[in-house]
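Handout, section 3.2

Students often ask what a structure token actually looks like in practice. Rather than define it abstractly, here is a full record for Mitochondrial adenine nucleotide transporter ADNT1. The first block is the sequence as you would receive it.
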Amino acid sequence: MASEDVARKTSDSAVSTIVNLAEEAKLASREGVRAPSHAFLSICKSLVAGGVAGGVSRTAVAPLERLKILLQVQNPHSIKYNGTMQGLKYIWGTEGFRGLFKGNGTNCARIVPNSAVKFFSYEQASRGILWLYRRQSGKEDAQLTPLLRLGAGACAGIIAMSATYPMDMVRGRLTVQTEKSPRQYRGIFHALSTVLKEEGPRALYRGWLPSVIGVIPYVGLNFAVYESLKDWLIKSKAFDLVEDNELSVTTRLACGAVAGTFGQTVAYPLDVIRRRMQMVGWRDASSVVTGDGKSKASLEYTGMVDAFRKTVRHEGFRALYKGLVPNSVKVVPSIAIAFVTYEAVKDVLGVEMRISD
């Protein structure tokens, strides 16, 4: 737990640094200082665009998101879900249409503010890092490199994930439970209050450390690959995809798909470990019911390394990639839709700056 406290302090420090850099960048801007009301309105529009992008993209792939989590945490001695199509058919047959979207309300309640903070943080981090880079290099026309974009994306991911992590924790439990689960969480607030009462406040951040480590390559690569690929296509005019110095929606969707594939492949094992650590202490989870119907306590993990070690020892290295197929099918359209929706909503709202700018 000490390592998680240190990591939390590090993320808080990162937040302060980004905010300070962004403020200095604004003050140093040649355009002058904007009116407070205009700046506030611009921030609100950016947050709204990010929230809409997150809600739309996650709802579109909600059935695959639920199946991924069920595959990640299911009992290896009582297999119910053997693949993407079989898993979706099983959920449909046992729980109906609503079963495919179970936990999506909680997921959107988490992902909307998470996405809003993530996109806004990326914009602010990018501006702050670019200002600092220009000042240190002495080049007023310098642009962000892929590595600097990776850093900005990593900062944005850590800030957004930390701000909404308790929601992610209870969302995982709501997604896993079925009608036959002995324990039934009635909703977001009931799950939060129950975990707080029975397991303590630290339980809400169980699995936080692997999440922090995983979000760096995941969100960092998503932003870095998406922005760098778009920038390269526009500047090189490769494949004749550029019209009026802009890329079509289809091309931007393709860029988002490539970015999502890179990010999720690198970070997926950490996502599996995070999800398993979140289930520790929940002895009534459906995923830990044996074949004879008797409740069985899940494995106890003392930390992230111990979770990795026990997972590989008991289930093999492939267990770190359980649910990868439905996650891949989910991530590709999800990331693509999120990026394109974000830019489209900002256009509709009349925001001058987009992440590419």
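Discussion prompt for tutorial groups: The CA atoms of residues 261 and 332 lie 6 Å apart. How would you have guessed this from the sequence alone?
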